[in-house]
Amino acid sequence: MTPPYGLQGRAAVVTGATRGIGHAVARELAAAGALVCVTARDAEEVRRTAAELGGVGLAGSVADPEHPRAVADLALREFGRIDVIVNNAATNQPYGPLMDVDPLAWREAFSVNVEAPLRLVQCAWHAWMREHGGAVVNVCTEGATHVGPRIGAYGTSKAALLHLTRQLAGELGPRVRVNSVSPGLIRTEMARFVWEPGEEEVAAALPLGRIGEPEDVARAVVWLASDAAEWITGADLLVDGGTRVRAAGTATGYAIHERLRSRGTATS
After folding, report:
1. Is 174 in contact with 229 (CB distance < 8 Å)?
2. pLDDT at position 253, please?
3. CB atoms within 10 A of CB 192
4. Dmax (CA) of the chain
């Protein structure tokens, strides 16, 4: 059976690819026929994921200014091309009121969530995409366009990523399409403190009646990266289970915000 979406033989780079959404994206890209280069901080997990997908990988932090260049060089050396970039790696730190945020932690959030995606796109552009074209998908968040308790740094940095997506779409067209996917609450380790325990209560407040799975986001990412979305750029695709339209169907409060208020810490 021919893999869907026309990604056969194309090369993709996925950051934060050893768990959660990034891992699901890398799997879906490989299933669609793409050659996959993965990166994350844990070297053993990178090796395991690369072997699982029949691809290559490089361990490191996207916050390291040299890491995006090294990843792009690896993909180009091993695959001879870079057709797809998926900027998924992110941090939800610092967590808490903005008046208490440490300036260094604030800068780290922007380094990981905004600067690193730009650097990787720059590297891919100069190495391959400027001449041959390609697609970029940034993993943003449903919360990038509104506020919430204790997640001001995360939300602000993701709002910047959303604007960066649109800016790059305007600058890099027609050769390169740049879009984003904005997930709602997804069943990942990064979000575990929100949905566990009491997942049923959170899910009941959503029109589609469940929290999201990494695969829900991955399918959207792969579609945007594929030829099926060839006339789409500068777009943000919501994958949120109806989070933004929940008020039309329920009179209860927003359970996710209540959980954010009640928790003093979060993990990246």
Report:
1. no
2. 59
3. 12
4. 55
Torsion, Cα of 127, 141, 92, 218 (10° steps): -60
Q: Determine the length of the chain.
A: 268
The answer to whether residue 154 is catalytic is: yes
What mean pLDDT comes out for the span 134-150?
93
> Quick check: 5 pLDDT over 80?
no
Q: Phi-psi region for residue 168, left (φ > 0), alpha (ψ -120 to 50) or beta?
A: alpha
- Identify the active-site residue in 5, 95, 154, 254: 154
* Of 80-84, 226-230, 241-245, the least confident: 241-245
Tokens of 36: 């996959």
Please report the pLDDT score of residue 244 as a whole number. Answer: 87
Name the phi and psi angles at 125, rounded to 5.
-60, -50
Look up tokens 């993709």; give the residue: 12
Rounded CA gap, 191 and 25, in Å?
17
More reliable by pLDDT, 267 or 231: 231
pLDDT of residue 256: 63
2 DSSP 8-state letter: P
Q: What is the pTM of this model?
A: 0.92
CA dist., res. 120 & res. 102, Å (int): 26
Taking the CA atoms of residue 157, residue 159, residue 162 and residue 166 in that order, the dihedral angle to the nearest 10 degrees is -110
Q: Which CATH number applies to 4-262: 3.10.50.30, 3.40.50.720, 3.40.640.10, 1.10.443.10? A: 3.40.50.720
Among residues 186, 184, 204, the alpha carbon closest in space to that of 253 is found at 204
**How far apart, in whole angstroms, are the C-alpha atoms of residue 227 and residue 14?**
18
